[in-house]
Amino acid sequence: MTAHQTIKKADSAAREMTGAQIVVQALIDQGVSTLFGYPGGAVLPIYDALFQETEAHGHRLRHVLVRHEQGATHAAEGYARSTGKPGVVLVTSGPGATNAITGIVDALMDSIPLVVITGQVPTHLIGTDAFQEADTVGITRACTKQNYLVKNAADLPRIIHEAFRIATTGRPGPVLIDIPKDVQFSKADYYGPDEVTFSHAYAPRTKGDPGKVAEAVRMIANARRPVFYTGGGVINAGPRGAELLREFAALTGAPVTSTLMGLGAFPAADPAWLGMVGMHGTLEANNAMMVAIGSRFDDRVTGRLDAFSPGSKKIHVDIDASSINKNVRVDVGIIGDAASVLEDMIAVWKAKKYEANRTALDSWWRQIDEWRARRSLRYRPSNEVIKPQYAIERLYALVKDRDHYITTEVGQHQMWAAQFFHFQEPNRWMTSGGLGTMGYGLPAAVGVQLAHPDSLVIDIAGEASVQMTMQEISTAVQYELPIKIFILNNEWMGMVRQWQQLLHGERYSHSYSESLPDFVKLAEAYGAVGIRCEDPAELGDKIRQMIDTPRPVIFDCRVEKAENCLPMIPSGKAHNEMILPDDWDTDLTQVIDEAGKKLV
Amino acid sequence: MTDTNTQPASAYDLSHETEVENVATFTLLVDNEPGVLHRVVGLFAGRGYNIESLTVAETDRRAHTSRITIVTRGAPHVLEQIEAQLRKVVSVRRVHDVTRDPNGIERELALVKVRGTGTERVEAMRVAEIFRAKVIDTTSESFVFEITGGPSKIDSFVELMRPLGLVELSRTGVLSIERGAEGM
After folding, report:
1. CB-CB contact of A501 with A592 (8 Å)
2. Of A286, A502, B73, B151, which is most buried, counting CB atoms within 10 Å of its CB?
3. Contacts with B46 from chain A: Cβ below 8 Å
4. d(Cα A254, Cα A221) in Å, to the nearest integer?
5. Minimum Cα–Cα distance from A575: chain B residue
6. Bridge partner list, B53
7. Pick from A189, A187, A203, A260: which is nearest to A229 by CA?
8. Residues 6+ away with beta carbon under 8 Å from A278
């Protein structure tokens, strides 16, 4: 069975090129200006075409050489998340492709549009266990939105243009194109994005069902304790999604919370903002429900499902029909793009002349204020050691008035960043939510800085995570990207340590970061700048020094070693049974029961 | 699980073992391209859904489409989730839940080898006639029957053949189509 060719013949536009040149031309026609990659045997023809393209046309298509293919995918994710454009990756066959997979899965989980081009051994060698051969489409079938093995150069224009469409529309995600080396050499006619006919009947639904939208708006208008629970889908809907959310929240007078992925869609400075929902979310965000928009009732949000807001009516707007009723049964499920549905909801609200129920809302806000008064993000300050929460607060205070973007690794520092760094705009927060990939933040920062060369880009990191992709600091140095790696160094895999304390009888199995490098010297060895801070009194000045350094910086911020990330919904507990900072003096090892210890 | 509520205690307990499971037959129209079967089967394997039977063949050479019929089992909302997940696959054009369609027809073909002599052999032949099974191979001590029908008819036939010397069974899995003039 061969892929079929449905390209319309349009001789005037057709130009014969090699497969490799078709790839480059298609990327340019798709408006790609930055590409993250690493060369190798099976992609050399494409690298050659890139070389010639640069000689002929200068740097309209910039290739960024990473140090490991995982770095390429995360950098592309950071680029995509901060711009709304697809991230593009070019790697070789075999290990090039397998190294890229963590980032591909990450993009699938967090709905990030990526187009990943992999080289493959020549078609006649496929299946012979050739050098650097791997069944890339087989391996990635389960972790891409769609993938292709291109056996004929004539199929390339259609496949590449279709890949961009699939990656960027509907629920965005990664699409992989595997191109054997002989296909890169062979010649075929090139066709532009408007000249090809796609072979798949792919037509994601973006407009919500009008009847359900009207029903949902009626429920919101009558709700006594409404709350918007928004997610990454609002960010993916583009800036318009965030604007409409703000408008609708103002009309309804309802408070807004968000998942980790949705931070920034609603301004943290707005009085209606409740903070983040979920396992490490605030108390006030975890006690009411819910108009879910572009969020997917992830297990980090719901905690115990049987106790998850059992009495509340639930409305769920999602572009992915399979997200609706997956984990939580909802009363009204609307399939559609967050921005489109919000627009329709606002139109219905105005047409029906609904008014916020002020009396009910007043008592609702009084309840929320009671929860807020418990200050669930409280921590014990210290003059001796830097508290990690304090470090993030200082960082926020010193960068908030600048044009900034934040990436993170995964663990305690990520949650503290989500709690204490306040986001006012969408696309400013890049984090690995679904997959939870340690090592995401540094390469993501590289991608963000490339897209926003004049902005301040900070990777809030942990000393364990950052070592997983530390080599990408070399990429930052090569391309003069002044990213800031702000490491909350507690010498522990902090979240693992916290779970071992709470769940495993304080048996700290392999969670201590032994033999840490000297991060200052490491930075210098890479040609970056190293800064270390151990004294809370010096923190502000050193952060300023970091910000003012026009080069990549690794900031080794030595923090309290045994600090726990609170509040926390322990495993097996309901979303409103939190461990709060009030529980400082209780024995945290006894809080979680045996059943809960088995959960993740 | 300690709770008897409709929702399990945690997302990690989404096995729904206590819920009533139904059998469902899904018919899929897919783009006939390399790997499409793996996409569908991989989805079932990766998300822990059962496949009780599976049939696949190209049905429209010009449109490059194949038809896949999958019989699966699960609690109602698991079946709902399976359908939604199938619809998400880019290469899947149509998904139809035959079980919930009053016009759905399901048929299966089985080849059944039975070994025996004397009265058992006569009885096997008599049962085969009742079920309108065809004899497609015979030796002095064996038959191979070909039988078509709904899965339950074939199950009954096989059960009757078991004491009569059932040796081997080969089934196609369920195929389905809708009654009436309309296509999928």
Report:
1. no
2. A286
3. 142
4. 10
5. B10
6. B71
7. A260
8. A259, A260, A285, A286, A298, A300, A301, A569, A575
